[in-house]
Design goal:
The structure holds 2 protein chains of 2 kinds.
Chain A: H1 2-5, H2 8-30, E1 33-39, H3 46-65, E2 74-80, H4 88-97, E3 103-108, H5 110-113, H6 117-122, E4 127-130, H7 136-139, E5 144-146, H8 154-167, E6 175-181, H9 184-200, E7 203-210, H10 218-225, E8 231-236, H11 238-251, E9 257-262, H12 268-274, E10 282-285, H13 298-312, H14 322-339, H15 344-353, E11 355-358, E12 361-364, E13 377-381, E14 398-402, H16 415-419
Parallel strand pairs in A: 1-2, 1-3, 3-4, 4-5, 6-7, 6-8, 8-9, 9-10
Antiparallel strand pairs in A: 10-13, 11-12, 13-14
Chain B: H1 5-35, H2 43-61, H3 65-92, H4 99-120, E1 135-138, E2 141-144, H5 145-167, H6 169-179, H7 181-186, H8 191-216, H9 226-238, H10 243-263, H11 269-283
Antiparallel strand pairs in B: 1-2
Classes of the chains: A alpha/beta, B mainly alpha.
C-alpha cells in the first residue's frame, strides 16, 4: 500500500501534485481554442473582408453554442490587414509569437494570402485559405488548402465555363478580346483565358491590361470595339467591373458574349447599382437563388448572415463569399475533431484524404490544396429591371450556363441584343 | 486595330471629359499648394467626404448629387477655414509646418477614412441620377452624360474660381499672399485671414469634386488615395498657382490618358501622363502656364 511504501510526507506531496496536475488539465481544457487571422476590414476589399468575418463569427457562435471543439470554446484573434499585402507578415508573426494562437487561417483574397505563405511554410502550419486564386502554384506547399471552388487548376477552371458557353454558340466564335486590371487576380484569370484560347484555336484581336485606378473605361471599350471581337473576356475588380459594364453600355459595345471574370456583380452593391446594365453580361457566381433546392442548408445560414449584414453595412445578399467562409471553418472544425487535436501534420493529412460535408456541399481537396473539381458557375444576368435588391433574392434573374449539373438555361447572344 | 476618325474624335472627347473631372480634383490643390504653400495631402479625403454626403442626400431624398454638393459647398468652406486655423495655430505660426504639418494632414486623411468606414461601412457606394445611364450620340461620337455633366460643372467652377481670384479684392489678396506676405501686411491686410478664406475655397471645391467622383464611379472610403498623386501632378504640370494652368494640365493628362488607352494600351497611360509631366518640367520647370 502507498501509505506503507512511502513516508507520509511523500504521499501528501504526490497527492498535492496530482491535484495540481488535475487542475492544470482542467484549466487547459477550458482555455479557448484561439484561431488567428488577418482580414481586410479597411481598404479596397474591405467589403468582402467584413462579409467573410461575419460568416466566420456565425460559425464560431454556432460551434460555441454546441459546446465548442474538443470541449474548448472557440475564440478569434484577428487584425485588419487594410487590404495591404505589406501588413500581412507582421500580423501573422504577432498572431503566432505574441498572441500564441492555436491555428491560423487566411484573410480574404490572393493579395493577402500570398504574403502569409512564407510564414505558414516556415512554421509547418496547416493553412486553410479563403479565395486565393492559384496561390500554391508557386509555393507548392503540401499543407495549403483553399476553399474557393476553382478546381485543381484554378487559372483554367476559372474561365472554363465562360469559354464553354461561348463555344456553344452557333456559329462558333473565332475572335476574342481579353482585358483585365494590372493586379494579381486578373493576371491569373487572363493567364487561364489565354490557355483556353490556345486550346480552342481562337484568334486574339485584343489582349491588354489597365491600371486599377483608371477612371474612364470608355477608351478601352472603344479600342476593343474597333477590333470587332466575337468574345470579350474581362477580369476586373469591383470599381473597374462597374466602369467596364457602364462603358460597354455607353459605347454600345457590339459583341456576342461579354464578361467572364468580373468581380463585383456577385455582391448586392454592384448588382443594385448597375441594375439593368447587367442584362446580357455573362459572369461567374458561386451561388444563385435558382439553385436553392440543391443547397438546402444554405438558406438557414443566409438568413442569419443577412440579418447581421444589414446592421453592419456589408453585402446584404451574401451569395458569393460568406457561405464559403463558413464552409472553410467547417472544414477546420471537422479536421480538428477527427484528428483529436491541433497537430498540424495530422490536420493536413486528414484534410488531404477526407471529404467534408459543408453548407456549400461536399468538399474534397486535390493534392495542391485546391478543390478536387471546379464548380465555378458561369451565369448570365437577364430580365433585371430597376435597382431593387429584393429581385436578386428571388430566382429568375441569373441563368446558370455551366457546369452542366447546375445548368438552368442556355446563353443568349449577342450581348448587345440582351442589353436592350 | 483600324484607326478611324470616329475613334480619334471619341478619344479626344473622352480625354476632355476626363480632364474636366481631373481639373475639379486639382483646382483646390492648386490653391492650397500652389498659392498658399500648404501641402494638403488630405485633399482627397475631403473629396471622398463630399462623395459620401452627396450619396446620403441622394439615397435618402433623391436629390441630384452635384446640386447637393453646390448647395453644401459653404459648409465645406467653413470646414476648410476651421482646418486651416488649427493648422496655422499648431504648426505654421510656430514655423513647424514643413514636416509636422505634413504629418497633420496625413492624420486628417486617415481619420476621415476611418470615420467613413465606421459610419458607412466599407461597401462601394454609388448614386442614381437621371442622366447617369444616358449617352447622347452624334453619329458615331458618344457623349456619356455621366461624364458630360461633371465636366460642364467642373469647367464652370474652375472659371468661377479664376474670376473670383482675378476680379475681387479677396482674390487679389490671395494672389498677393502667394507672392509676398510681408508686402501684404504692409498694405494692412492680415495674410492669415486671407489664407484661411482661400483654404476654405480650396476645400469647398474638393466637396464638389467628390460629387463628380461618385457620379462617375463607385466610391469606398479609401479610394481617395488614388487621387493624391494625380492632383499634385496636374497642379505642377499646369504651373504652381495658375488656375488656367490647372485646367490646361488636367486636359493634357486626360487626353494623354485617353489616347494611350485607345491606341497603345491602357497600362501605358500612367507612364505617358507622368512622362509628359517630366518632359514639361525639363523644358519648362515652372509648368505650362506658370510664371
Amino acid at each position: 500500500m502507498l501509505g506503507r511504501s512511502f513516508p507520509p510526507v511523500f504521499a501528501r506531496a504526490l497527492g498535492a501534485l496530482a491535484i495540481a496536475f488535475g487542475l492544470t488539465c482542467a484549466a487547459f481544457a477550458q482555455q479557448p481554442l484561439k484561431i488567428g487571422f488577418g482580414m481586410s476590414l479597411t481598404g479596397p476589399l474591405a467589403g468582402n473582408g467584413k462579409a467573410a468575418l461575419i460568416a466566420m463569427e456565425i460559425w464560431r457562435d454556432d460551434v460555441n453554442a454546441k459546446g465548442g471543439i474538443l470541449g474548448r470554446k472557440v475564440d478569434f484573434v484577428y487584425y485588419d490587414d487594410q487590404t495591404s499585402p505589406a501588413t500581412v507578415p507582421g500580423i501573422y508573426t504577432k498572431l503566432l509569437d505574441v498572441d500564441k494562437v492555436d491555428l491560423v487561417v487566411s484573410g480574404y483574397g490572393t493579395n493577402v494570402i500570398a504574403p502569409a505563405m512564407p510564414i505558414a511554410m516556415q512554421r509547418n502550419l496547416c493553412f486553410m485559405t479563403l479565395f486565393g486564386l492559384n496561390v500554391n502554384s508557386k509555393f507548392k506547399y503540401d499543407r495549403y488548402f483553399q476553399i474557393m471552388p476553382a478546381g485543381p487548376d484554378p487559372a483554367i477552371g476559372w474561365s472554363q465555363g465562360f469559354f464553354e458557353a461561348a463555344m456553344s454558340l452557333n456559329p462558333k466564335p473565332r475572335t476574342v478580346a481579353i482585358v483585365g486590371a494590372d493586379a494579381e487576380y486578373p493576371a491569373m484569370a487572363l493567364e487561364g483565358a489565354r490557355a483556353h484560347i490556345k486550346r480552342l484555336g481562337l484568334k486574339v484581336v485584343y489582349d491588354k491590361t489597365y491600371p486599377p485606378n483608371t477612371v474612364d473605361y470608355s477608351p478601352i471599350v472603344r479600342a476593343i470595339q474597333a477590333t470587332n471581337p466575337e468574345i470579350v473576356f474581362v477580369a476586373s475588380y469591383p470599381p473597374d467591373s462597374a466602369g467596364m459594364v457602364r462603358a460597354a453600355n455607353e459605347v454600345g459595345l457590339k459583341t456576342r458574349i461579354f464578361g467572364g471574370g468580373l468581380v463585383g456583380p456577385q455582391f448586392a452593391a454592384l448588382k443594385t447599382q448597375l441594375g439593368p446594365l447587367l442584362n446580357g453580361v455573362v459572369n461567374y457566381e458561386f451561388y444563385v437563388p435558382d439553385l436553392n433546392k440543391k443547397f438546402p442548408f444554405l438558406e438557414q445560414f443566409l438568413a442569419k448572415y443577412q440579418a447581421r449584414a444589414a446592421k453592419e453595412g456589408v453585402d446584404p445578399l451574401g451569395f458569393y463569399l460568406p457561405p464559403y467562409a463558413y464552409a472553410m471553418m467547417q472544414v477546420v472544425e471537422q479536421a480538428i475533431k477527427a484528428t483529436g487535436g491541433l497537430d498540424q501534420a495530422k490536420l493536413a493529412e486528414y484534410i488531404h484524404k477526407s471529404e467534408f460535408d459543408t453548407f456549400v456541399g461536399k468538399v474534397r481537396f486535390a493534392a495542391n490544396g485546391e478543390w478536387a473539381s471546379s464548380r465555378v458557375m458561369m451565369t448570365q444576368y437577364t430580365g433585371i429591371s430597376g435597382n431593387d435588391v429584393e429581385q436578386f433574392k428571388k430566382p429568375g434573374h441569373v441563368t446558370v450556363l455551366y457546369p452542366t449539373e447546375y445548368k438552368t438555361g442556355s446563353v443568349k447572344a449577342p450581348y448587345h441584343e440582351n442589353r436592350k | 486595330m483600324e484607326v478611324s476618325t470616329a475613334l480619334l474624335v471619341n478619344a479626344i472627347i473622352a480625354g476632355l471629359l476626363l480632364g474636366g473631372f481631373y481639373a475639379a480634383v486639382s483646382v483646390g490643390v492648386s490653391i492650397s499648394f500652389g498659392m498658399l504653400d500648404v501641402v494638403n495631402i488630405a485633399h482627397p479625403a475631403f473629396i471622398i467626404l463630399g462623395s459620401y454626403i452627396a450619396y446620403i442626400v441622394n439615397d435618402r431624398f433623391g436629390f441630384d448629387p452635384i446640386v447637393v454638393s453646390l448647395v453644401l459647398s459653404p459648409l465645406f468652406f467653413l470646414l476648410g477655414m476651421a482646418l486651416y486655423r488649427i493648422y496655422y495655430l499648431c504648426f505654421e505660426k510656430r514655423g513647424q509646418e514643413s514636416l509636422r504639418g505634413l504629418a497633420f494632414f496625413f492624420g486628417i486623411l486617415f481619420i476621415t477614412e476611418v470615420a467613413l468606414v465606421l459610419i458607412f461601412g466599407v461597401d462601394y457606394r454609388m448614386v442614381s441620377t437621371r442622366y447617369g445611364d444616358v449617352t447622347w450620340r452624334a453619329g458615331e461620337i458618344d457623349f456619356p452624360m455621366r461624364l458630360v455633366v461633371p465636366f460642364l460643372v467642373s469647367v464652370a467652377m474652375v472659371i468661377g474660381v479664376q474670376l473670383v481670384l482675378t476680379h475681387t479684392f479677396f482674390g487679389r489678396a490671395v494672389l498677393a499672399v502667394a507672392q509676398d506676405q510681408l508686402a501684404l501686411r504692409l498694405m494692412g491686410v492680415n495674410p492669415v485671414r486671407v489664407k484661411e478664406l482661400a483654404f476654405g475655397l480650396s476645400i469647398a471645391t474638393a466637396g464638389v469634386a467628390g460629387a463628380f467622383l461618385i457620379v462617375i464611379q463607385p466610391v469606398e472610403p479609401a479610394i481617395g488615395r488614388h487621387y493624391i498623386g494625380l492632383a499634385f501632378a496636374v497642379c505642377v504640370l499646369g504651373g504652381m498657382g495658375s488656375i488656367w494652368g490647372t485646367l490646361l494640365g488636367a486636359f493634357v493628362l486626360g487626353i494623354a490618358e485617353s489616347f494611350t488607352s485607345t491606341f497603345f494600351g491602357p497600362s501605358w497611360a500612367p507612364a505617358v501622363s507622368f512622362g509628359l509631366l517630366l518632359a514639361t518640367l525639363a523644358f519648362k520647370p515652372s509648368g505650362l502656364l506658370g510664371r
